[in-house]
Amino acid sequence: MCSIVSPSCCNILGESAPPERQVSPEKQYRAALLRSRFADIIIKAQENTLEKGGKPDPEKLKLEKEELERRRREEKARLQAEAKAAEEARKKAEVEAAAEARRKRELEREAARQALQQMEKTVDINENSQFMEDLEMFRSAPDEHLHSFIEEASPENSLNGLGSFKFRANSNPLEQLGLYMKNDEEEEEEVEPQSILDTSNDPEEGEID
């Protein structure tokens, strides 16, 4: 059959085409559309070649035309299926790319959120550490140094008596300032109901003031 038609036509129709290289779904889709568009032209050219081949046997010419028509239908169906598969592969690749981009954005947001939380924790820890260091400095500093420090930091409070305050060694600076950790068990102290009051001063029943 291919002896009547040029080898290039057979290659275009996919009969003896070399194996396809790995290409993107977009290129596969475009190639399938091109092959489908030119398939009818190639088949008609093959029919014209048969008709111009001198005076062949009418019966043989009929059989060859039927064979060409059958091939045309098969090739058209194959190209349509190929184009559909290429289109589905292209859409699938787009969906996967969008999902991957969305996953990367979510990972970046989560990393930024964790970094922000870590920064906030670090700031809190540093502030608490600095506060305790300041208290320790007040506890260990001599009275004259403490007094001069208060005057430099807040001159209006230099005469409020804080300069004479001295922290005791080996004690909690917070407790010396009157700050204590509250125990949860102390919150559950029993409170005498208001209804149970001393009724000794209430007028007795039936007594007239």
Q: Main beta sheet, described?
A: none
Mean pLDDT: 66
Helix-and-strand structural type: mainly alpha
- Count, helices: 5
Helix content: 55-70%
Total count of domains = 2
Task: Pick out the low-confidence regions.
Answer: 1-20, 157-165
Order of SSEs: HHHHH
Q: Which outline best applies?
A: rod-shaped
Beta-strand percentage range: under 5%
Radius of gyration (CA) equals: 48 Å
| End-to-end gap | 134 Å
3D architecture notes:
Residues 47-90, 179-209 are annotated as: Disordered. Residues 49-90 have a biased composition (Basic and acidic residues). This is Transcription factor GTE10. This protein has helices at residues 7-13, 25-51, 58-140, 143-153, 173-176. The chain has 209 residues and is mostly helical. The protein folds into 2 domains: 7-128, no CATH class; 141-174, no CATH class. Helix 2 (25-51) runs antiparallel to helix 3 (58-140). The protein is rod-shaped and about 125 Å long.
Give me some keywords for this one.
disordered N terminus; 209 residues; mainly alpha; single chain; 0% strand; 2 domains; Transcription factor GTE10; Env_Response_Regulator
